[in-house]
DUF5672 domain-containing protein (Pedobacter riviphilus), 264 residues
Amino acid sequence: MKKVAVIVPIYKEPTALEDISLQQCFKVLAKSHPIFCINPTSLNFNTPYPFEKFISFDDAYFKDIAGYNRLMLAGEFYEAFLDYEYILIYQLDAFVFKDDLNIWCQKNMDYIGAPWLRHKYPDVIKAVKNSVLSYVHRRFNIKKKNTSVPTDIQREYKVGNGGLSLRRTQIFYTLTQRFQEKIKEYLLHTAANLNEDVFWSIEVNRKKKNLKIPSYKEAVYFAFEVPVDRAFELTNNALPFGCHAWNKNLNVWRPIFKDFGYSI
């Protein structure tokens, strides 16, 4: 079995900022890893990038966030990559700083993404209280008042955001079959707390540990999202393997990207 493939979802002609993500993806990862493009069946676009292969899925998967959630929870998606032990999802708001991909594959985890961090608590008592609350809310799937949407605290300090994420292909495929009814429940909603990455990070491990996922203190070296200053604090200012949603924090990333040859 081959070790890892990089999967880049493209649903339209890339913007200038998205092209920076693509440039860096190929610059850093293409020497050692195959890079696949997944796209809607109807999309025809010219690209200078030497993708290993273009794999098309139904247009409905690429129309909006709800469609993308369906794709990332669909057995047919993971089935297409069962020749690889791992796949790295690399959305076009991701950026990799170095090729540590094999190192992360060797950690024998099933799912890794940027942790959902928050700024430091004012004191230890508040931190412990929220840690307990977070566990209780996840364990019993506490909902926001008068809704069927899980509370925000369920995600606090959990791993991981799906925009730049490493997934063990076979177990993800297996779990799409095992959790079909729960997946249907998630797909009825569009709230962020019911996105596909929350399903993989929290839902499948709510009652029993089905996926091996690292702690936030380890995963922060895999990827940053927000808050970036808190992430740098946790890594003692070391850059991670990559980052996600950098286009929403241009002022933060501008001087760092400049060191990598990009003006944003």
